[in-house]
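Weekly modeling sync, notes
Attendees: S.R. (lead), two postdocs, one rotation student

Agenda item 3: backlog of single-chain predictions. S.R. asked that every request posted to the team notebook include the full sequence so nobody has to chase files. The rotation student volunteered to paste the first one in as an example of the format we agreed on. Action items at the bottom.

Example entry:
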Amino acid sequence: MKPQLTFYRWGAGLLFLIFAPALQAQTFPKDSIRWNGDLKKFINLVFLGDGYQAGDLNKYQEHVGNTADYLFKFSPFKEYADYFNVYAIKVPSAQSGADHPRTAVDCVPAAEHPLLVTENYFNSTFDYSSIHRLLVPTNPGAVINVIIDNLPLYDQPLMLVNSTFYGGSGGSTAATASINTSSFEIMVHEIGHSFAGLADEYWVNEFSAGERANMSREKDPAKVRWKNWIGFNGVGVYPHGASGGQENWFRPHESCEMRFLNSEFCPVCKEAIVLRIMQHFGTPVLSRFPADPSVTLMADSIPFKVDLQKPNPNTLRTKWILNGQLIFMNRDSILLRPNQLLPGNNTLTFEVLDTTPLIRADNHPTLNTHVLNWNIQLASTGHDDASAWQGLRVYPNPVFNELTLSMDGNPEKLKFEIHNILGQIVFSGYLKDMIKVNTHAWIPGLYMLKIENGNDYTSRKILKQ
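Predicted structure, as returned to the notebook:
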């Protein structure tokens, strides 16, 4: 769901509520950096730039493209790259760079990063919350209102600040990074915060600690939230430290992108990101055919199709279920024939679940199995006179090894066919008084007997056990 109003929390718990429509709209040029589909469906990453003067905006667009390219080579964004659109909104600043008030307790010497006062559009500054590397756009209202005015169907804002000094931040306003030589890695780390709600896996302070996908007070491997990953690829339960509150908080890995740059996301963080992608994107079904969920099938076969947005590699498992029985798996389309259907109403169900090995959450199948249904009416092309078939006997039913068909008072041979759920003929013949059919080799499931006599016909369900 795309936002209309947004809550933001920064620093020592200051809460902002931004009502974008209350402010005068201001539009800026924007470019599509990566486009995969409808803005209403796909996940829209929207970049803003701060401290880029009008003459720097082409450089800014290049920076956005390079950053996006890097992100989508980084697992698990790599596997789901085709689920995203990327846009760049070009907002000029009066001056280049970002403020550096030199108020942080860990500030580097002035020779390395001097005092700077910069007139940039989003008021980006280093030394936020007295941490030198914490680079934050301190005008969240401007950030959100520019995005809402220019690309309201956004999912995740990102900010590139035109400063070569090392810095960045994550949070609910924007994942932010400078254009330092480490900027790509900074942005990947900060997106972990902003997009997936991940915690730092290095210790910050007691105030910043909290229950997250990758942070917990629980130290029991059988109970910790990442219990399904314990023992896989270095996942365990590791204390953040030995004192000062650190000993009470635990992380899943010793070497993760959320702890050290130039690392991979650990399996626990990858899972959190993929689950967030699925939450944003919803069903991978982009369209269905027939579009109408109610279908009438006459004498001709009819195709049923779904257009799926697939990860790379494709890990979507699909099922086609006709009247409660599985008929096909891992197909995007099937062809239904009239002889596969019951007289009257039928239900065709399509199910899809992403079976990616990046997810081990117990509730994943429940939350992320997506279902489509068609109600199919089999139209009659003949006359089913119930009174004409009163002498027909089909027994035993359910059947194990041998099926008997009999027809009392039948003067003629009647053609019959028995079909499996796929519409394939498993037996055919002619019935006059009685015939026995060996069913020993049949696969257990539902079968359909159809008998005709000129324009008269009837059908019976047969259950093989």
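Discussion: group reviewed the output briefly. The longest strand covers residues 344-354.
Action items: rotation student to repeat for the remaining queue; S.R. to check formatting next week.
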